[in-house]
Amino acid sequence: MTGIKDGRLLKCSSKPNCVSSSQQPENRKYVEPLSYSISPIALKDIIRQMFRGNRSYTIVKEGEYYFHYEFRSTVFQFVDDVEILIRPQDFTIHFRSASRVGYWDLGANRRRINTIKKHLRKKIGER
Question: Among residues of the chain, what percentage have pLDDT more than 90?
Fold first, then answer.
């Protein structure tokens, strides 16, 4: 399941194949949100360009502050949902990445979010 509830990305299910910044920080599925200090409009453009330039991702939704992409693995063609939520009210970017099938992801979703965050840090700097 994907989407937003009460202004936040959904938490992960009980399966260990998901990470989300909506989890409690002490939860092993937690990933830290990223702070930013550029305009939300510029940030949206950076996010769109980042994903449109990568053939592993398919656009599901690119809204005003919510982005949903499908990531397809090259070998087994597994699909993972990658979500990004810009929260202009507190200058944070929230992340969620979850496998659609299977139980374990062998850390793939955490590595994916860390790669996305690393790319964003280079483009925007971290506040």
Answer: 80
Phi first, then psi: give them for residue 126, nearest 5 degrees.
-105, 135
> According to the per-residue pLDDT averaged within each range, which of 28-42, 50-64, 66-80 is highest?
28-42
* C-beta of residue 84 within 8 angstroms of C-beta of residue 95: yes
Q: What is the pTM of this model?
A: 0.93
Query: Taking Cα atoms as reference points, which of 18, 126, 36 lies closest to residue 88?
Result: 36
Closest CA to 93 of 22, 12, 28, 26: 22
Which amino acid is it at 126?
E
The packing angle between helices 108-124 and 40-52, to 10°, is: 130
Question: Can you list the alpha helix ranges (DSSP code H) found in 4-107?
Answer: 40-52
